[in-house]
Each structure stands twice: as structure tokens, then as C-alpha cells.
Amino acid sequence: MSVIIPLIIILGIVIGAITFFLIRSIIAPQKISSIPNLLKQGKIGAATRTAKQILVKEPRDPDAHYFLGLAYLAENKHELALMELKTVNEIGHFGKFCPEIQFRNKIAELYARFNQPEEALKEYLLLIRLEPQQADHYFNAGSLFQERNKSDKAVNYFRKAIELSPMHHEAHYNLGYILYHAKRPVEAKVELETALKVQPNNYNAYFYLGRLLKESHDYVGALLSFEKAQRDPDLKIKSLVERGGCYMSMNNFDKAISELERAVRLSNNDAANDTLYARYFLAACYEKLRKIESAITNWEKIYAKKPSFRDVAEKLSQYQELRVDDRMKDYLTSSMEKFFDICKAITLSMNLAIRDITDVTNGCQIIAVETEQKWRAARKLPKIIRFLRVPELIDESTVRNLHEEMKKLNVTRGIILSSSNFSRKAIEYAESRPVDLLDKEKLQDFLKKTDSEDTSKVKRV
Asked: How far is Cα 342 from Cα 364, in angstroms, rounded to an integer?
């Protein structure tokens, strides 16, 4: 009896243990299998509790970690979800409840969300091995290479995605974007247009197609593309600036001003790059239309936010006279009629009689002769005086152009009077020709000698 009793006790313990493990092996899978249904029914709390209960008993259960991760995703707890899925990755076991392909898609998305592109890329490359005919895997890998500025590799993956799925509009757009920046406009245009055929509301594709058309001088086509692109709120200001640039290239400065002023009004950040460019081009339009004060206002607003922006500081310096010299202001900003009167007054102050006056690009031209001759019988030789009102340095080509005009008209002497200065090459060219170059300081001296308020009294030619 003394031997039988211990055997009975041991046998009872063994049977109890076997029963426990049998019950556990039956109940645990039942608990795991219940979690997908709980998630589908939106019972996230119950799914979370069930997964955690299983993990208390089995901390390395990959299915429980996976489902807990899915529950966290449903609650928008992405960081906790990533921690659970990383644990699954460490365990490395995939089965009925945790299919590897579905798992790797989710963890790759989370890696990308938390700015871990290297880890996300590893997952997509593994997915390509698992599903080599799935275009999205190539597209996602290509997008990550693109973000890392590895455009050559990105192009290959986008092309493979298109090969597997010719209607993959995102791959067409991304490929077109890369080709545009790689200065391959013909190929880029094909890809962007294909993207739009598949997905007509891809406003980014319209924007870059517009840029391509603008750069190829198809301004009408570009305007249409930018008009469609501005339907995207994020692209609206950029598109308006680009439309303004198109109108500027078409010399339609009034329409350009309208588009650019809209861009400035819509901006809520005066320091934003798009706003700075809108004001810069707006100032350029006003300068072309001789509305210098409006141009200066925009340059000053740019300078207040970013003094180093392009040539704004130089522009303000060039037009500094407008703030202190009313005569120079009139010379630069007046209407053509009043400008002619100013130029005629200066010509008369040179003791020259005016024979003809015409307008030229950025100024006017007067043909005049001397009013007094030392010898009465001496023939009065004509002179050409070209008045220019531009902020830029006068280059050699401008002086050469006047000299050619002198030859055509058989005029032996020429003068260029400018509101700016002359380049070194222009001065060197004039030194050996009968052309006098009078710069901004000389012009100011002439303006002081003449009474600009009475220029309207100058006799019309």
C-alpha cells in the first residue's frame, strides 16, 4: 500500500498536467481565432484584451503580437502598433493568423510613416521577392529610392511597375517628375500625359506638364495646364505665379499683374518662397510699364523678408534716386508725352534745335542740329541723341546699334544719355567712335539745369 499511494498521486499529477495542456491547446487557438472577428465587428477593446491575455501566458506568440498591432492601428496608436509588428519580425514566424505578405505591407507603411525609409525599403524589397508580379511593390520601392535622391534606381523600379501595370498612373507621374528634373522633356511629357489619361485629376501632373509647355514656349497650352493645376489648394499660388510668368513671356503685362496680385492676396505668409517670387515678378511687370513706385513697393516688401533674394537689393539701389530726386522720378516714371517734353528740354539746353523725335525701346531718340555756328556759311551737322530710362548697365550692343543707325542716316555724331551707367565694353567701343556716353550723373546735371515743371511748354515737334 505504501508504494501504491505515491504512484496514484504521481499518476494524478501527470493526468492533471496532460489535461491542463490539452485544455490550453484547445482554448488558446480558440482565443486567437476570435480576435479577427472582434476586429471586424469593431470591438477593438475586446480584441486588445484577448491578445494581451494570450501574451501574458505566451510572450513570444507572433499571432497575438500581430493582432495586438492591428488593434493599435484601429485605435490610431501607430507607434504602439509598430512596436508589436517589430516583435513579430524578430520572432520571424508566419502562419495562418499572420500571413507574411500582409504583415510586411503593414510594417513597411509604418516604417515609412515614422521616417525610417531604410527599414521600409527592406520590407518592399522582400515583398518583391514574395510577389514579383505585384506592381505596387516596385512603385513603393521606387518612391523610397526617389526620396533618397537615388533617381536612377527609382526610374528602374517605376518602369518595372509600369511594365506590370501599364495603367499605374502614380508610377507614370513619378517617372515623369524625375525625367522633368533630369532635363528630358520629351520623355517626361509622355509620362505626365499618360498619368493624366488614367487619372485626370492628378493636379501635380498638370503643374509639371505646364512647366514643360512653358519652357518649350507653348504658353497657351501652359496656361491651360496651370489653370487645372490650381484646383489643388496646395498648388494654387504656385500655379498663379507660373501663369503670371507665361503672360510676362507673352508681353501681356496687365494679365500677368492680375494673376500675380491674386497669388499675393491668397498667400498668408509674406516670407514664403512662392510669395516672394510673386512679388518679384509683379515688380518686374510694373517696371516694364514704368510704374516704378509700385515696383519699388514690392521690392521693399521682399527685402524686408529676405534681403538676399535675387537682385532686389540691387534694384532698390538703382532706383534710390526716385526717393530723393523728383526730377529723376519724372524722367523714369512719366508718360511718353511728358517724357518727350523732358528730353526736348534737355536737348534745347544743349543749344540744339530739334528736327525730329521718335520713341525707341526704353526711351526716345531726337535728331537735332546746333543752333549757333561760328561761321555763318558752315553747314549745320545733325546729331542723334538717344535718351534711355533703364536700370541695367548699358552694354556694347546698345552703343553699336546707335552707331549703325548713325551710318544709315548719315549722321556724324551721336549721344546716349541714360538713367543708368555703361558697361566697360560699351565705354571701350565708344572711345574709337563718334559717340558720347553720358551716364546717370550727367543726366542728373541736365535735369537740374532744366525746369522740369515747365517742360509742357516746350514746343511740339
From this structure: 11
